[in-house]
Amino acid sequence: MLWGVGMEAIKTIGLKKNFKVGMIEQQVLNGIDIIIEKGDFTGIVGPSGSGKTTLLYCLSSLEKISEGKAYINGKNIVDFTESEIAKLRQSTIGFIFQFYNLIPNLTVFENVLLAKVIAGKGDSQIEHILDKVGMKDFLNYYPNQLSGGMQQRVAIARALVNEPEIIFADEPTGNLDQKIGKEIMDLLKELNRTEKVTIVLVTHNEDYLTYCNKVFRLLDGKIII
Questions:
Q1: pLDDT given for residue 225 in this prediction
Q2: Residue ranges of the domains in the chain?
Q3: How far apart are CA 77 and CA 89, in angstroms?
Q4: Residue 49 contacts by C-beta under 8 Å, 6 or more apart in sequence?
Q5: Which residues are CB-contacts of 118 (< 8 A; sequence separation ≥ 6)?
Q6: Residue of 15, 135, 159, 219 with fewest CB within 10 Å of its CB?
Q7: Backbone phi, then psi, for 180, in 5-degree steps?
Q8: Contact in structure between 152 and 188 (CB atoms under 8 Å)
Q9: Could you tell me which of 87, 143, 96 has the C-alpha nearest to residue 118?
Q10: At 138, is the pLDDT very low, low, confident or very high (cuts 50, 70, 90)?
Q11: What are the pLDDT digits (tens) for 109-132?
C-alpha cells in the first residue's frame, strides 16, 4: 500500500479492553482515542498497571479489543479474520520485545531468516539488514555467544527483515544497562529517520521520551495527555 502525505498509520476510537478474572470483569483500557501518523516515533508511558502494554498489544492485534475501533492503514483490524491478522503481522508490522525471544539453537542468520520463511519470502536482504543493525560480522554466532545488547540488535533485524511499515516495541531496553539501552534507542531513532518506519514504543524510562515526537500518557486505562 502506498502512503499519502500525513496519512494515519494507526487510529483508535473509543478503544476498550476488559479481562475476565473468574467471575469478575476488569476494565484495563477505557475509551482510548489516539492518532499516530506515518513516520511518527510515538512513546506510550505510564505507571505499572496503567494499561500501556495492553494498549500496545491491542494496537498490534496481539490482543482483541473489547469495544471500539482500531485502524491500521485505514482498515479496522477489529473486523479482520485470523488469516488477515496473520498477513498483517507478516507484511505490515514488526515486533520488538523486552525479552529477545531468539531461538537458541539457530544462528543469528537463521533467526532472522526464520521470520522471512514464516512470511513465505526468500533469504534476500538478511545480510543487508544485519549490517544496518551492526551485526553483519556475527552471522554464524548463536544467541548464547552474544551480549544482551547484541541479541536485541538481532531481534530488531528480525523485526525489520520483512520491511514493515510499523514497529511495535515493548520495553525493548528493559533488560539492558543504561549505556546499551541508549545505543538501542539511538538505533531505533536512526531506523525511524532513514527507513521512515513508524515506531510505537512502550517504556517506563522518561529519558527516552526525547526520542519521540509524540507521547501518550496513560493512567488507570485512560489517556491523560
A1: 64
A2: 40-63+89-223
A3: 11
A4: none
A5: 90
A6: 219
A7: -70, -35
A8: no
A9: 87
A10: very high
A11: 999 999 888 887 766 789 999 999
The set of cell numbers assigned to 47 is 505507571
Question: Nearest Cα to 212, choosing from 92, 45, 93?
Answer: 45
Place of cell 534507542: 185
Distance separating alpha carbons of residues 51 and 223, to the nearest angstrom: 10
Torsion sign over Cα 21, 58, 61, 94: negative
Domain 40-63+89-223 classification at class level: alpha beta
Rounded to whole angstroms, the Cα distance separating 204 from 47 reads: 7
Q: What are the φ/ψ torsions at residue 96 (nearest 5 degrees)?
A: -130, 125
Say how many residues make up the chain: 225
Please check whether residue 148 is in contact with residue 75, taking contact to mean a CB–CB distance below 8 angstroms: no
Strands 8-21, 67-72: pairing is antiparallel
